[in-house]
Amino acid sequence: MAAAAAVVTPTRMELLKLKQRVSLAQRGHDLLREKMDALIIEFFEILRKIGEARASALKQLSLAHRALSICSAIMGTIETRQASKEARRELEVEVSTHHVMGIVVPTLEVEKVERSVLDRGYSLHTTSSVLDDASSEFEKALGLLVKLAELEESARAIARELEKTKRRVNALEYILIPRLRAALKFIAMRLDEMERENFSRLKRIKAMLEAGA
Amino acid sequence: MSFKVAVIGDVDTTTGFALAGASYVHVHTKKEETLAKLSELLATGDIGLVLITHRIVEELGIEFRWMLRMKRLLPVVLRIPDKTGYMPAVDELYELIKRAVGAEIVIRAEGG
């Protein structure tokens, strides 16, 4: 605080300027605080959605793995792997971006995850129907995982922004504003002191003049 | 814009997702190889989603986190459990909450 007080010149002009700066900083601080609150609400909304999406996606994924294990057991591991190499692998994810509170967040969408048996591309007469089951379970799982990925990415983006905002709010609240206030106080005290000095000086001169007269 | 899906995982995970239509798969064997493949996947522009199993993420360690921090908006990287259902004890999401909000908050399911 002493360092801050040392650099300001105790004049009325400076006092007015400082007052303006304090009120500006205060306004900025209030605005950022509001932004932070809104971000937190948004963040928890997304977290809640993630909880639901994650539970269903993980459940579907374990079902899919189960189906795949059965498939490997019945058809043979090598044959299953071979079929997966033959399968058509052209799944397309539609990605667009949207804005949440001025933060860019990707949106992922898949048009057709679940395909018909003929669309999958592996030969049907060398494979068993359990392979079809495994494929369809994995397709469902993938659809859910895409949604989950979108939500997690949004949460990460919002958390990053939240951290930044929090740092700014704290910098204003605990450093800039107290420093300005201290400088303001210093000037006010100094000006008062000068006024008192002047007053006593005048009194003294008056007394001297009266004594001389 | 359409993007493709990539999967990095053990043999079973990659087989399953290949059956579901994922365009690129990489079977994890060595750390260096997987890291090279991952940076390649992150650099090419036509991939929208990378799925990687938790077990591999743990093996890759700090390099993986660096890559994640350096990457652009796309592709989105999602960590998934493998066939044993393995998930790390400390959820990455809870660390995120702790860092962002400054308090540990546990979210329960609706009505829980």
Can you give the mean pLDDT of chain A? Answer: 84
Biggest contact: A-B, 60 and 40 residues
> What series of H and E elements makes up the topology of chain A?
HHHEEH
Main beta sheet of chain B: 4 strands, parallel
| Residue share in helix of chain B | 40-55%
DSSP strand content of chain B? 15-25%
Share of helical residues of chain A: over 70%
| Helix/strand class of chain B | alpha/beta
End-to-end distance of chain A: 49 Å
Through-space gap between termini of chain B: 39 Å
Low-confidence stretches of chain B: none
Gyration radius of chain A, in Å: 35 Å
State the gist of this model.
The complex is a heterodimer of chains A (213) and B (112). Chain A is mainly alpha-helical and 213 residues long. In chain A, 77% of the residues lie in helices and 8% in strands.
Topology:
The complex is a heterodimer of chains A (213) and B (112).
Chain A: H1 2-7, H2 12-75, H3 77-86, E1 93-100, E2 103-110, H4 129-212
Antiparallel strand pairs in A: 1-2
Chain B: E1 2-9, H1 11-20, E2 24-27, H2 31-43, E3 47-53, H3 54-60, H4 62-70, E4 76-80, H5 92-101
Parallel strand pairs in B: 1-2, 1-3, 3-4
